[in-house]
């Protein structure tokens, strides 16, 4: 699943890559230093040493310097030094780059549920600044094609308005939040926006007395199997109001049953025929060995994930729900691609905060090759999250990567488990 931050960063990098000058490869090393360093003063030193050592020109390399300044600004935000944060935001030359970093900052505060009043100030600055330059030709970098610039301006509106809407909602300003949620989704197909956006939009519609509009959106998403758990709950509430509890249950159950056959038809085409699941033995977080070979006779679902992977974390509520519905299935959550010596403590910390997933195994890197994770390599994991469904005979039947919505993942896994049981 994409996040607002991922989407915005993609747009931002594309804009920055439009700069005409090529910078030495070590620029990325300096940028990495700043993004990983917690001390803002050290980041300021890295910023100016990078400009000096790499001979970054204030005109030809303006975009790259903007990125460094933006990251320095974020490091001050993390320390709640708003004066220095705003100072370095103000030093960014390109207005698009300014709005990008303002938006990243407001989204970070929203995610942490920290200083939401200041987050609202930053989000408003973001949309006000964006609206001030989006139609101004001078805001476009000279070497960036105008067609691409116009396209990016349209794309950028979505994360800017969406983050502002979510912050306003968090601050209990639903009426204003709905206006910006509608701006974010203007002329967009609900199937092509983030699940979280529809969560917020439909909830705001209901809060502002537009239940029928929300109901139609929720019903459409449910009929194609792309609802979140929050959307399903809201749809049930609205349906019960319309029909009563008994009729609502029958009606919603019929929607679920209509989805299942289409999933089954599509997934049968993707089923692996005769691929043995590589055996492995990993330690769980209590230090006990868990071997796949001991699971023969049961359907096993492997979930390859990492604490730093936003789509992995976003999929966890759905995984928690479906694992609770299938106690007969073994769900093993394989934490992989966790770099650094404190990997296990990071995993434990996440699970302590979230309470899930407790059945986690740690795919530690090879001592000879620290960037190679044995189980991930054996299962040819190229991206996470990745779900692998293994039948009772130890054969891989399905691999499902990525994450779009709770309901889609649950319907997909529900059908995969059903098919695997029959093999």
UniProtKB/TrEMBL annotation:
<protein>
    <submittedName>
        <fullName>Redoxin domain-containing protein</fullName>
    </submittedName>
</protein>
<dbReference type="InterPro" id="IPR000866">
    <property type="entry name" value="AhpC/TSA"/>
</dbReference>
<dbReference type="GO" id="GO:0016491">
    <property type="term" value="F:oxidoreductase activity"/>
</dbReference>
<dbReference type="Pfam" id="PF00578">
    <property type="entry name" value="AhpC-TSA"/>
</dbReference>
<feature type="domain" description="Thioredoxin">
    <location>
        <begin position="271"/>
        <end position="418"/>
    </location>
</feature>
<keyword id="KW-0732">Signal</keyword>
<dbReference type="GO" id="GO:0016209">
    <property type="term" value="F:antioxidant activity"/>
</dbReference>
<feature type="signal peptide">
    <location>
        <begin position="1"/>
        <end position="21"/>
    </location>
</feature>
<dbReference type="InterPro" id="IPR036249">
    <property type="entry name" value="Thioredoxin-like_sf"/>
</dbReference>
<dbReference type="InterPro" id="IPR013766">
    <property type="entry name" value="Thioredoxin_domain"/>
</dbReference>
<dbReference type="InterPro" id="IPR050553">
    <property type="entry name" value="Thioredoxin_ResA/DsbE_sf"/>
</dbReference>
């Amino acid at each position: 699943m994409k996040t607002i931050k991922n989407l915005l960063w993609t747009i931002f990098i594309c804009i920055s890559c439009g700069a005409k000058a090529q910078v030495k490869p070590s620029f990325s090393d300096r940028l990495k230093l700043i993004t990983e360093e917690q001390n803002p003063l050290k980041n300021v030193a890295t910023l100016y040493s990078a400009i000096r050592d790499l001979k970054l020109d204030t005109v030809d390399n303006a975009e790259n310097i903007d990125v460094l300044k933006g990251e320095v600004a974020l490091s001050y935000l993390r320390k709640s030094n708003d004066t220095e944060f705003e100072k370095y935001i103000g030093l960014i030359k390109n207005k698009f780059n300014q709005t990008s970093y303002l938006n990243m900052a407001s989204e970070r505060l929203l995610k942490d549920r920290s200083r939401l009043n200041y987050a609202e100030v930053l989000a408003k600055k973001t949309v006000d600044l964006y609206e001030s330059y989006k139609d101004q030709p001078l805001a476009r970098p000279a070497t960036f094609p105008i067609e691409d610039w116009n396209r990016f301006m349209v794309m950028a509106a979505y994360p800017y308005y969406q983050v502002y809407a979510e912050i306003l909602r968090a601050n209990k300003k639903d009426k204003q939040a709905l206006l910006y949620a509608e701006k974010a989704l203007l002329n967009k197909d609900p199937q092509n926006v983030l699940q979280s956006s529809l969560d917020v939009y439909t909830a705001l519609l209901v809060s502002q007395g537009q239940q029928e509009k929300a109901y139609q959106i929720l019903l459409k998403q449910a009929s194609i199997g792309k609802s979140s758990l929050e959307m399903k709950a809201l749809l049930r509430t609205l349906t019960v109001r319309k029909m009563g509890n008994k009729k609502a249950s029958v009606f919603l159950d019929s929607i679920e049953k209509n989805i299942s056959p289409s999933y089954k038809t599509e997934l049968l085409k993707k089923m692996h025929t005769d691929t043995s699941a590589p055996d492995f033995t990993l330690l769980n977080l209590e230090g006990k060995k868990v071997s796949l070979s001991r699971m023969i006779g049961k359907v096993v679902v492997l979930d390859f994930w990492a604490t730093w992977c936003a789509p992995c974390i976003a999929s966890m509520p759905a995984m928690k729900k479906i694992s609770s519905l299938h106690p007969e299935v073994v769900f093993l959550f394989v934490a992989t691609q966790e770099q650094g010596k404190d990997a296990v403590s990071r995993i434990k910390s996440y699970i302590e905060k979230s309470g899930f997933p407790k059945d986690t195994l740690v795919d530690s890197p090879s001592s000879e090759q620290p960037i190679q994770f044995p189980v991930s390599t054996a299962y040819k994991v190229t991206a996470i999250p990745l779900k692998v469904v293994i039948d009772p005979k130890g054969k891989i039947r399905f691999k499902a990567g990525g994450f779009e919505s709770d309901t889609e993942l649950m319907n997909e896994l529900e059908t995969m488990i059903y098919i695997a049981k029959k093999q």
